[in-house]
Task: structure prediction
Amino acid sequence: MEYSKLLGVVAFICFSIPMIASSSDGHFKLRVNLTRRSEGDFNFTQRLSGAVDRSKIRMNMIEAFVKQRIAGQLDTETPLHVGNGEFLMNVAVGTPSVSFEAIVDTGSDLIWTQCRPCRNCYTQSTLIFDPSKSSTYSRVPYTNSLCNALKRFKTGCNPDCMFNYRYGDGSETSGDLAYESFSIGSGSGSMVAGIAFGCGHDNQGRGFSQGGGLVGLGRGALSLISQLGSKVHNKFSYCLLSITDSPSQTSPLIFGEGGSLSGANTISLIKNCAIPSFWYIPVTGITLNGEAVNIPSGTFDLQSNGAGGMIIDSGTTLTYPIEAAYSRVKGAIQAAIDLTPTDIRSGRLANPNLQI
Result:
């Protein structure tokens, strides 16, 4: 089977992820505003065209990553394309705290920010974090299990964890894995101590300059949601802005209780043991005008070798079903709508106010 047909990716507008319930003390709820960042003053057609291009690039990288893992190659990084049109959140690190904007990504695990001294740092709009000025900074030992979750290296007799985290498009961050206090919400209880993060002294890649780092919200041990754990009832939820919304609007990212949608249907998420960082949803079919599209049973199933399935990914604007499903949905839409298909990259849309 071709690997290009192994996988589907979907980006939800509103999404709530319940994990394992906990009765531990010290629960709190954090609410963060997400901002959609796009470089330049683009009209709707240009933004939609850019979203298509970015989604295609990211989809190709995720497929390549899945292929590597299924084939047994030892590439442990999660793919990421950070570019025009990402979602960002405000966070603060250290004591005293230094604020920065971080790209939000459900498709990766590592939390990181640029750090001094810089071997290779890009320009960011906020101060670059200097760990020597923080009273709560401490290095993660090389033998720690969190260090084992990274592609790490050791120099001489250095007992600390040093890492190189490379993404699917060639972007990368390198530096020290450390513990620090993070402020990730407003109000009391928003400062959380002992969060493991990447203190990046060498950072390079397309699109990183939109923020001062990245917050991974995958299922792996290093992700923010995994580290917060029972403090937030092992739950987070988010609601993403549409590409048609104003750049000045924000949308919520909620850690803890409070993200439930009244009257909403719920589903159980699927874990792929071959690729444990990704969030998978069970898809059984697609309907159009209330009628099921004729898609073979099992088309969206997650296979025993880790192939297939549908991933929730905040960095992919479009939904990508595999070809066996896409071609049938496309045919059903063309049969139902008497309109001429248009290539959005031509700059000509029949309805420039089209709502996605």
In short: Residues 1-7, 11-24, 73-84, 347-356 have pLDDT under 50 and may be disordered.
